[in-house]
Amino acid sequence: MHKLIKFIKSFSVISSIQTIIVYLYVFFLARYGSESDYADYITTTYIVDFTVAIALFGFNLLLLRENISFIKDNCFSILFISGIVSAIIALIYFSLINPSNITIIIYSLVLITLNYLYQFGFAILIKLQKNRLALTISLTNILLVLLTLILCAVFNKLTYVNVVSLRSLQVAIFVFCGFFPTIKLIQPKFNLSFHKILDCFKTALPIGGGTIIGNLTQYSDKIISSTLSSGEIARYSIARFDIPFIGIFINNMSYVYMEKIKQAINIERYDDAITNIKLLFKYGWYFNIIVFTLLFCNTALIIKILYSAKFLDSDILFKIILLSYLLKPLPYSNIIVALGIEKIILKRMLVELVLQISCSLILLHTFGIIGLAISIILVLLLWSVPYNLYYFAKTLRCKIKDLIPVKEVIKSIFKTFLPCLISSLIISRYCYKSDLIILLITCIIVVLTNIKEIKFILNNTK
Fold this sequence. Notes:
The protein is mainly alpha-helical. It contains 20 helices and no strands. The mean pLDDT is 82.
């Protein structure tokens, strides 16, 4: 019971709650909103998420890596830099790329500001280990959002304005109840100056440069997909939506290991750093293969439940994009920061951006919208993952295979994924209305074959 309570209070669970909240808006609009309201909301979230990710400029990772004095000295400089970056992106986007109506512009600017403060504050909450506060705010938020969206759906008031107003309120609650109290605890120094801003910018530049290129890469296929027909855009947006939980636990778990890896590197105990990376890899792989198997074998049911049967054409796209999660058992950028090799990020991201745009255009032309989904897998498989692992091994003076729990990876594929896949194919072929049967069988197989792995995840989640 103590372990379960500790697990529930972990930042991984808290981040998952926040991700579910974000998904709830999409769920209700896809099912009960109009097509124009849904399109306006997706447009807003794309620019908000893109702007915030770039405006963070890697500062959230620096806050986790550096000590409290760094936050005290640079808090206002970080906020100033991010504010300027956000303003520039918003100006370019709304004046040149997508001159939206004034309502969308205003709500986008409000959400950009609030979401940046949320991300900044959440990093500090993790730094100070304020689990209870973060959990309380998150649970309050999810109840508020869920009940309000249900009422809007019942009374046919699920409009763009109502949804983005609710999301603004939800994020504002987190900001005022989480961000400002933690800032008061830190008591930052108001020493804003050009010299201080420049130093802070230079410190974050290796990570921030990679962040900009990385987000351009991440959003390139979405931008290309927007040139397709409305039906294809709908299919692709459903398949491309990030699934709650995937990546969150691994990313938050890495925050625990970052400090251990950094300390091992500082005293040249490379074996300890290798051990910690391998443990993190094992944790990430166990989590990913379990979730991936359940999702991959039940995509049709998931689409029906989460979006409705009208989006079943997204099934194959959904499966293809899910494969990308198996290539992400490690939060590579976090490990790069822990190893102190931030300079490699820019080269990787630049090549990744060029490859993503090229592959997306070529495969889209050759195979249609399916090719667009395949391009994501190819870039990860042929460039990003090998590049990261090569430099990890080079820095730690070991071989790539020393960082990967090879036996566990192979074993889990044969004992978990393949039995579930074969079972789902047989059931779907011979059983009528087989969706629920497949879900039940895959859940049973996953639990019975991964008791040890599930215990490992529960015991190591922070």
